[in-house]
Amino acid sequence: MSNSRAQNPFTEITCREHAITQADIKSHGWKPALAASQQRQDAIAKLIVSSVSGGIACQAGCWYCCYFKVDVHAEEVFRIVDYVRAKFSPARVARLQEELAANTTTLQALSTQGQLTANLKCAFLDNGQCSIYEVRPARCKTFHAKDVEGCKKSYEDPNDLSIPSSFIPELSHAGEAHLKGFRQALADAGYDTNAYELNAAMALALADSTPKRRFEKHKKAFVGLTSNK
């Protein structure tokens, strides 16, 4: 191991996750590899949170960060779709599809800056709690704060970018390092690693299995949606 890697725990997280995920994809396929990777990310987050002085402000019923735009990756979307189909009632699925469509229409009418400051309820937020918490997007897993007041103020005035963030940097950096390793392995295997807007991607994946079939054929999953790495 090089000295630079030994001195940088985040680089080590990336390298370790890359190697483990490569082996998992080769042996078991992308879906089990994703589930195992998310379990490892949860374990890292739990360890970091346990060491935070004073603990974290996040708790069940706290939903201030569930009103902002979230980008997801194709493999996350398909895991959420499987969860929704297994856990949600037909009536809840229908309501979800309506909310996803409405959110997509709202966001597409906004500029890029407008999307970042839009106060838009997540379609998966039910009674103040995440209805897909077990399989929530990786980006959501890094949203932990030490002070709920900052989250509340940002929710009440999303255009005020001067409000100090109380997000835990170690948790965010570790999460990004973990995801970088996972997506490097996914890219090595030839899969789509683009990021997509949550509402638009979920709406398409729930309505049609074509995006998943395209992903499994190593093509861009969501044709027509704006994407980025």
What shape does the CA trace take? globular
Spans of at least 5 consecutive residues whose pLDDT stays below 50 are 1-6
The H/E string reads HHHEHHHEEHHHEHH
How many angstroms does the end-to-end distance come to? Answer: 28 Å
Q: Given the structure, what is the number of helices?
A: 11
Number of strands: 4
The share of residues in helices is: 55-70%
Report the β-strand fraction as a percent range. under 5%
Structural class call reads mainly alpha
Q: How are the strands of the largest sheet arranged? A: 1-4
Radius of gyration, CA atoms, in whole angstroms: 18 Å
Main β-sheet description: 2 strands, antiparallel
- Average pLDDT score: 89
Your description of this structure?
By secondary structure, the protein is mainly alpha-helical. The longest helix is centred in the N-terminal third of the chain and has 21 residues, at 30-50. Helix 3 (30-50) packs antiparallel against helix 9. A hairpin with a 2-residue loop joins strand 2 (125-126) and strand 3 (129-130). The model is unreliable at 1-6 (pLDDT under 50). The protein is built from 11 helices and 4 strands. It has one domain. The chain is 59% helix and 4% strand. The strands form 2 sheets. It has a two-stranded antiparallel ribbon with strand order 1-4. Strands 2-3 form a two-stranded antiparallel sheet.
How would you sum up this structure in a few lines?
The chain is mainly alpha-helical. The chain has helices at 3-7, 9-28, 30-50, 74-87, 90-108, 112-117, 138-141, 148-156, 169-188, 198-207, 210-216; strands at 71-73, 125-126, 129-130, 195-197.
